[in-house]
Design goal:
By secondary structure, the chain is of the alpha+beta class. It has helices at 12-21, 66-76, 89-109, 119-139, 153-162, 176-186, 189-200; strands spanning 2-5, 26-29, 54-56, 62-64. It has a 4-stranded mixed β-sheet, with helices on one face. It is globular and about 45 Å long.
Length: 205
């Protein structure tokens, strides 16, 4: 398989999962601005949507959209428990979390990348995120991870998106359970290994 990634983006979530699963894969760095890659060609030929992550399979198929990629990968080694079995209520709960992270945290914070955003608009998005973090904080009061006491692909995704908050000037220290959750995940060997692999990929040509 081949994972198309850009540093400090949502593509880091499937990269963590690839490491958790111990699967063999190659990495291709994508320049989000130019769409050039660390291999010949342009990224738009891989994913016409123009954004990472994209996962090229051995069959030649390309899978896009983080939640879909994460579940596909988890199902390659179901015995590792990174996603509950398909058709179960617990799998629906996982999808519930993935949709929440996608729509409320990921998409909800994306406008903050725009440094020219008016202060009133920025305050609106930050206030909405605050409410979402309150919900997650309450859920983590009695368990280590989103789905209980087992790390899943939803945790890889949330951890990745939470990593953007410092750059937005949002201090997650207001939520001690969430802060502890981040620390619990950042020491996982898969996170360090993914960071090391990404740093080793040559810059975009």
């Amino acid at each position: 398989m081949k994972l198309y990634f850009a540093s400090a983006t949502c593509s880091f979530a499937p990269h963590i999962v690839l490491q958790e699963l111990g699967l063999s894969y190659n990495l291709v760095r994508v320049d989000n601005r130019t769409k050039l890659m660390s291999e010949p060609g342009g990224f738009l030929t891989i994913n016409p949507k123009g954004y990472v992550a994209a996962l090229a399979l051995d069959t030649g198929d390309v899978l896009t959209e983080g939640p879909a990629i994460l579940q596909y990968l988890a199902d390659l080694k179901p015995d590792l428990g990174l996603a509950p079995a398909n058709g179960t209520l617990e799998r629906a709960r996982l999808q519930e979390w993935l949709n929440f992270i996608t729509s409320e945290i990921h998409a909800g914070s994306s406008p903050l990348f725009n440094r020219g955003l008016p202060e009133t608009v920025r305050d609106f998005f930050e206030t909405k995120l605050t409410r979402r973090f309150d919900l997650i904080e309450a859920g983590l009061a009695t368990q280590d991870y989103l789905m209980g006491n087992r790390f899943t692909v939803a945790d890889a995704y949330l951890f990745t998106v939470l990593g953007w908050m410092k750059g937005f000037g949002i201090d997650l220290g207001r939520w001690p359970k969430l802060t502890a959750y981040i620390r619990r995940i950042e020491v996982r060997p898969s996170v360090a290994a993914a960071l090391e692999r990404e740093a080793a990929v040559a810059l975009v040509a």
